[in-house]
Amino acid sequence: MELKGQIRWCVLTALTRSGAARSGQSCYLGMVCILREIQSSPREWVSVFPSASWPSVPPPARPAHMPLSSGQRLFFPSDLQSFPLQLREKYGPVFSVLLGPRRVVVLCGHEAVKEALVDHAEKFSGRGGMPTLDRIFQGYGVILANGERWKQLRQFSVATLRSLGMGKRSLQERIAEEALCLVEEIRKTNGSPFDPSRPVSHAVGNVISSIVFGDRFDHQDQTFLTLLDVIQNLFLELTSPWTQFYEMFPGIMRFLPGPHNRILQHVKVLHNFVTERVQRNQKTLDPGSPRDYIDTFLIKMEEEKQNPQSEFHTKNLTLSVVHLFFGGTEMVSATLRYGFLLLMKYPEVQEKVHQEIDGVVGRNRSPAAEDRSRMPYTHAVIHEIQRFSNILPLGIPHAVLRDTQFRGYILPKGTDVFCVLGSALRDPRHFRDPERFNPGNFLDENGGFKKNHAFVAFSSGKRVCLGEGLARMELFLVFTSVLQHFTLQSPIDPQDIDLTPKASGFWNIPPKYRVCALPR
Ligand code: HEM
Questions:
Q1: Which subcellular locations apply to this protein (predicted)?
Q2: Per-residue pLDDT tens for 405-425?
């Protein structure tokens, strides 16, 4: 065993032992072993390592330490994404790991992910633990909620987004307007290289803002620009090794100073901004004509004020708005930024998109949602961008709501489950040459758009992305509007463009780059 591995192992052992001593738990807390589980009794886990390296009978009362020398490795922060895929090779699509002291079940490949999220949708609909975010949000807000709270917030949010225009013509017009503002911002660069992050995030941030705050912000608005920077930094911090350490050893990390604590400051800025908007809405609320998500929530709060069990209170309002704004901005922005980068790397793909836009939309009107069905190539390119960029490779953790039989295993109630969406999006049984960017993955032999059921960028089942419809419309309209007006060219040789994400772990964020937008 190499020396580096031994040192790392000793550090972790020391860390976890000190934490364990305080909490009185096993001295092996935090050590990461790879275990395969089989059903025994509903609450018992049995390890079934190959007998040569691990005794399977009698089963150990709790997972013991597997020495590195046996060829196993630690589930170390930088491995978060690739490690499950390596383990899948060895243990198959269902296995469990210890993430610090926490045992999580990992599902890899389209079949296992779909079976859990769709065929056993109800049982797998719990939200799993995410210590970094749980520390801040404490289970409030729609993304992190569970039980009755989640049901009520989800139902309310879906209905409200719909009533405020999601899927309707009015929202389409809003997005088209923002896309045009973005085109004008880009035009100001006069073909010189620029970093697209801010203008792109601004455009999509304005779309979700108009839904939750009933307002859009000028491209020069300093408060909004700060907010967008905060969101981007938040995403970066969430992928940092420090945060990933926090995910594994929250009991220790919460007492240590370090960059992982910056997340609290970022969220505070967002929280303060939303709180101020809520207070502003409270003062000017007209219950007869809600203007946005906040107004609709305030009206619901008023209706339910006699109900002590109601989930409609200020905390859930503020944090749900933070969640919608956070998810609605950076997820869409990161996908678009990856898309533009890929089109610079593959100019032949960009050329075909240009041809299709010219043929279907022309140059004299803005693209509309109805054009999508007549633009199979562009539709396929957008799907391939999402598949390839794989923004949320591990999904957001789920948890089983009760003891659940799954593929011959028993998952005890409350077990955290990682449905590795990236393993479906890069599943070689569903996508040819999955590591390569190839829009052909979504085209049939006649050039028509071809659905692929392993496309799970928005996840699936009861927790499926709440903003999927909005995001799809934004991706199509913003992408086509920009390409209708510009050819995107890289200031460096396309062959030298590096597609490696800037940060990876729970999210894949595109690397920083500059683009020249040449008017067409
Ligand atoms: C390209 C853009 C987007 C992608 C790839 C994406 C992807 C996802 C994924 C993978 C999940 C996890 C689902 C699960 O737990 O299994 C999720 C959840 C969620 N997304 Fe998105 N999302 C995007 C855009 C948006 C937008 C625009 C909004 C805002 C309206 C949004 C709001 C949410 C919310 C609130 C949840 C939590 C749902 C729940 O827990 O019930 N997302 N998203």
A1: Endoplasmic reticulum membrane; Microsome membrane
A2: 998 898 999 999 999 999 999
Kindly state if the Cβ of 393 falls inside 6 Å of ligand 1: no
Answer for the pair 397, 130: CB distance below 8 angstroms, yes or no: yes
**Using a 6 Å cutoff on CB, does residue 141 contact ligand 1?**
no
Tens of pLDDT, residues 315-327: 999 999 999 998 8
Q: What is the DSSP letter of 138?
A: T
Q: Is 415 in the pocket of ligand 1 (CB under 6 A)?
A: no
Distance 420 CA to ligand 1 centre (A): 15
Q: From CA 161, how far away is CA 152, in angstroms rounded? A: 14
| Cα–Cα dist 167/380, whole Å | 20
Which residues sit in the known binding site? 465
Q: How confident is the model at residue 99 (pLDDT cuts 50, 70, 90)?
A: confident
Cis peptide before 58 (omega within 30 of 0): yes
Q: Give strand pairing partners of 519.
A: 486
**From CA 183, how far away is CA 2, in angstroms rounded?**
54
Q: What are phi and psi of 406, to 5 degrees?
A: -145, 115
- Give CA–CA dist 320/326, Å, rounded: 10
Distance from residue 333's CA to the centre of ligand 1 (Å):
13
Alpha helix (H) residue ranges in 25-117: 82-91, 110-114
The 8 Å CB, 24+ separation contacts for 42-47 are: 42/403, 42/410, 42/412, 43/403, 43/412, 45/96, 45/103, 45/412
| Other Cβ atoms within 10 Å of 273 Cβ, number | 19
pTM: 0.86
- What pLDDT, on a 0 to 100 scale, did the predictor assign at position 66? 32
Which residue is listed with tokens 């993430």? 99
- pLDDT at residue number 203: 96
Ligand 1 nearest atom to the CA of residue 157, by list position: 35
Instruction: Give residue 345's pLDDT band: very low, low, confident or very high (50, 70, 90).
Output: very high
Centroid of chain to Cα 53: 37
User: Which stretches does DSSP call E strand in 25-108?
Assistant: 34-35, 37-39, 45-47, 94-99, 102-107
pLDDT at 505: 67
The residue whose CA is least distant from atom 19 of ligand 1 is 465
Ligand 1 centroid – CA 32 distance (Å): 30
pLDDT (0 to 100) of residue 204? 96
Known binding-site residue numbers for heme: 465
Model pLDDT, residue 19: 33
Q: Are 335 and 385 in contact (CB under 8 A)?
A: yes
DSSP-based three-state secondary structure for 99: strand
Instruction: Characterize the bridge pairing of strands 486-489 and 404-406.
Output: unpaired
- Output the average pLDDT for the chain: 82
Q: How confident is the model at residue 166 (pLDDT cuts 50, 70, 90)?
A: low
Q: Residues 148-158: what's their mean pLDDT?
A: 95
Most ligand 1 atoms within 8 A of CB, residue of 206, 465, 509 to mutate? 465
